[in-house]
Specification:
The chain is mostly helical and about 300 residues long. About 70% of the residues lie in helices and about 0% in strands. The protein has helices spanning about 1-5, 15-25, 40-70, 80-85, 90-115, 120-130, 145-165, 170-195, 195-205, 210, 215-240, 255-260, 270-295.
Length: about 300
């Protein structure tokens, strides 16, 4: 069980939790919505959280399986991979990935039945994007498009989708709120790929970090960590939810991981940075969500 938990990569799970929190909070108090707690239907929030977490765990297992069978994990220095380390057989990891996708699909079907059947299309696209990140004959993660996938699906789609299942529409606020969420999710992937540049280069995995090189990847990570705190006050002001700007206080947590990256941390030294990045994202998401939730009362 410990191996399966490690293979699910708990440090990456804030990327699944935060968009659901932010999207749900952004939907609260929307004009014309009177059901639930300030317009929030709690079971839909729980189901959206299950979908997001199951997709995140699924893509982690799928990535573990695909990289393991291709042999591209042989040169990694990061946390244990189930297939590459021999801790679990490849077939079992593949089944775990599809079991996770199945859980997401069941929860997603319940949300689609309650809101719009178009969510099925979104769900299928999300599962396909999760699998073909490193799976299939031409994985787009190997071509440097992983960051775009993360921004779109764990930023825009997850955040606006979490709001949509509450209010059954997309609003400017839910779209704008997805931008800082997506940036921090991408930062998780960037620092992960920064650590893996040497191994990925040897294995022929052309991630964005490999394409940009070490120095420019470190600058990209720094930008992704600070830009959310630039756009958040704009979102808070333009949406009329000023308390959302309280998330600016979380910027003090950014200094430690950014300094380690800028000072040249490499290999195993970047593993703690991944956890610190996840904590920044989680705390930002919590404070931002609380501010959005109560902001409409002012």
């Amino acid at each position: 069980m410990n191996a399966w938990i490690a293979g699910a990569r708990p440090r990456t799970l804030p990327a699944a939790v935060v968009p659901v929190l932010v999207g749900t909070a952004a939907a609260a108090g929307m004009e014309g919505v009177t059901t639930g707690l300030k317009g929030v239907v709690l079971w839909r929030f729980a189901a959206a959280l299950v979908v997001s977490l199951a997709l995140q765990v699924g893509v982690n297992y799928a990535n573990d399986y695909s990289d393991g069978v291709r042999g591209t994990d042989d040169e990694r220095v990061g946390p244990m991979r189930l297939v590459a380390s021999g801790a679990k057989p490849a077939g079992a990891v593949k089944r775990a990935a599809f079991l996770s996708f199945g859980v997401a699909a069941v929860a997603g079907l319940a949300l689609a039945a309650a809101t719009s059947w178009w969510l099925i299309v979104v769900g299928l696209a999300s599962i396909a994007a999760a699998w073909f990140y490193t799976g299939g004959p031409r994985p787009y993660g190997y071509a440097g498009f992983g960051e775009l996938f993360v921004f779109v699906f764990f930023g825009v789609v997850a955040t606006t989708g979490s709001a949509f299942v509450q209010i059954v529409r997309i609003t400017p606020l839910t779209l704008f709120a997805s931008v800082p969420v997506g940036m921090l999710a991408v930062a998780l992937l960037v620092v992960n790929n920064l650590r893996d540049i040497p191994g990925d280069t040897v294995s022929g995995k052309r991630t964005l970090a490999v394409r940009l090189g070490d120095k420019r990847t470190r600058r990209l990570y720094t930008a992704l960590m600070f830009l959310p705190f630039v756009v958040t006050p704009l979102i808070a002001g333009l949406s009329g939810r000023p308390f959302a700007a309280a998330s600016l206080f979380v910027v003090v947590m950014v200094n430690k991981p950014v300094l380690q990256v800028l000072q040249g941390a490499k290999g195993p030294a970047l593993i703690p940075v991944l956890g610190q990045t996840g904590r920044v994202q989680l705390f930002f998401g919590i404070v931002f969500s609380i501010g959005l939730f109560i902001g409409h009362l002012t």
